[in-house]
Design goal:
Elements (H helix, E strand, L loop, with lengths): L9 E3 L8 E5 L6 E6 L3 H18 L3 H17 L1 H12 L3 H26 L2 E2 L6 E8 L2 E5 L7 H13 L2 E5 L5 H13 L7 E3 L4 H9 L5 E5 L2 H13 L3 E5 L4 E5 L5 H13 L9 E7 H15 L20 H16 L3 E4 L20 E4 L6 H4 L6 E7 L2 H9 L6 E5 L3 H10 L4 E4 L24 H6 L2 E8 L11
Parallel strand pairs: 6-7, 6-9, 7-8, 9-10, 11-12, 11-16, 12-15, 14-15, 16-17
Antiparallel strand pairs: 1-2, 2-3, 4-5, 5-18, 13-14
Helix pairs in contact: 2-4, 2-5, 2-6, 3-4, 3-6, 4-5, 9-10
Length: 488
Amino acid sequence: MNSTNVSTNKLNDSQPKSVRTISTINPSTEEVLREYNLITKEEVADLARKSKKAYKEWRKDYKRRTGFLYAFANEFKKERERLAKVATLEMGKTIKEARSEIDKCAWAVEYFADNGGVFLHDEVINTDARKSIVTFEPLGVIASLMPWNFPYWQALRFAAPSLIAGNTIILKPSSVTMQCGLEIEKIFEKIGLPDYVFKTVIASGKEAEYLIDSEDVSAVTFTGSVPVGAKVAQHATSKLKKVVPELGGSDPFVVCEDADIEKASSGAVKGRFINCGQSCIASKRFIVVKNIANQFLEKFIEKTEKLKVGDPLSEETDIGPMVNLAAIENIDEMVKKSIKEGAELATGGQRLGKENGGNNKGFFYKPTILKNVTPRMEVAREETFGPVAPVIVAEDEQQALEIANDTKFGLGASVWTQNLNKAEKYSKLLQAGIVTVNNVVVSDPRVPFGGIKNSGFGRELSKHGMFEFVNIKSIRFYDQLIHQHYVE
């Protein structure tokens, strides 16, 4: 996920450390929204220490924890419109999508409040002991390093199961979406959550290192780019701390020869252009079997050109701005490079408001489709984090699967076919942590989320995600010593 490679903030390192600040920028207007003071190393240490102290009480009462999560979900829903607007102003997603993100967060929090007790219930195992059980106990303080593209969802999809399990959390939101992170903390404060059970820190990468280093922090979760994720994982494991990195992907969208073209083309628009294409599980490589490629491409282009780009606060807008100048320049350069390499521009391919010397503000890029793309082009090899869809034509379905798997990423994949036997076979052949048939890939609190290869390791969501941040403890009870040969 490229979401931590770019930011809309401005960091002032020239000031004394005690007053270092960072500012956020509205990507629609390029205006500064707010300036924040960064936390100091001493404040990080104090916060981690207090969070660990809070953990000792928080872990004791499961019923109390569920009550707080239900209260949070209710308050979060009440604040839906205001919270959605904060996200739209900070990172540019349309207000419609921001509202949906709020709704999904509330659902996830309620889901883990509903089901956490079932997931955490002791398991009884049949062994030679009088009684053998497996228990699930919290680890302690978890440092959560989150990106900007889904600022509420990615923080809360981790926080909900971890809090229910009895952990306490220190959230470092992206420097792009500081206010979104603070809003989560404010709602926890409003419902009366005990102090230091959930805290948001205003920090840059340097302060994040202090968190990882702290002896009072037990584990780390990170969502972001491969290079940064590798460094975070290396840093955490060097301290012998559990880490779960979710590092994005280059998800294949495989269209078989018997696919419903109408549904597949609609799915392609939805899967590629959600959040202006800035999503780790967005469809990023469209691999279409040759004999239906023209038909699919025609529909895909037609529906893409109907999307309205503009003010993300408008109810009529389908696509808002990209997150910042670096992001839009990167995506534009990738498109130009692909065309030089032989790809053909089917639609889009330009920054809106800047044509012919225009000076309109905002980081808006026209939804783009590239055809005649080959698997070797950068646009098909790297994670394309923006509203650009490369279409690759495969000779047959076997080649389509080979192209789909020929990638260093392995987060999600979708396959489109009306033959469910074929769908089951292909879904098992696709090398990804998540496969969806005849729909786009989405995260869901009921099923595990995560990838393989360079997309990271470990899982979020469902009971499997909850278990990443618990101590899975085996306990066996004997009436007396059993004499036997012992092997470790």
